[in-house]
Every structure is written in C-alpha cells, then in structure tokens.
Specification:
elongated
Length: about 90
C-alpha cells in the first residue's frame, strides 16, 4: 500500500507511479470519537492488490495509539460506479 503518486515535477524522466510506502500504524489519522467500538481512518492509496490502482483504504482501531488495527479497502470510487435497478415498475 502506497501513497498516491506525487505531482509531476517537470523534470526529465518517467514520473513516479506511486508515493512512499504507507503503514497502518502511523500513516492514518483517526476520527475524534468512536463509532461503535472503533476509531476509523480513511485515505486514498495506491495498491497492487487489485492490479495497480487507486483505492480507498479504511483502518479501524480499538484505541487511537496502541489499539488493535484492521485494514479494509474499497475498490471503486463514485465516479466509476454505475448501477441500475432492474425489474422495478414505475407507479404513477
């Protein structure tokens, strides 16, 4: 899991594909209050898990500093999400 690629610097050469490697322990900012039993943090990251793409990474933690942390990722963004409801009749 990596930070997003930095902006192109205008220098010669191939631009970076991704930024620095990220850690669940240190690179997420958690919410100010618990939702249920967990603090949550979210950010856009670059990953190779789903074939070199940008995803949303969510981290939950039981405590902000030293609690147990879990990573979840979501593969799509709203701009890519298209759906329809089939079989639904219009009522007038």
């Amino acid at each position: 899991m990596y930070d997003l690629a930095p902006a192109h610097t205008g220098r010669r050469g191939r631009p970076a594909k991704h930024g620095k490697r990220l850690s669940v322990e240190t690179d997420f900012t958690f919410s100010g209050e618990k939702i249920g039993d967990y603090y949550t943090g979210v950010r856009r990251v670059f990953t190779r898990i789903f074939g070199n793409q940008e995803v949303l990474a969510y981290v939950t933690a039981t405590e902000k500093e030293h609690g147990k942390k879990r990573l979840f990722s979501v593969r799509f963004f709203q701009k890519n999400c298209r759906f329809s409801v089939h079989g639904r009749k219009k009522h007038h």
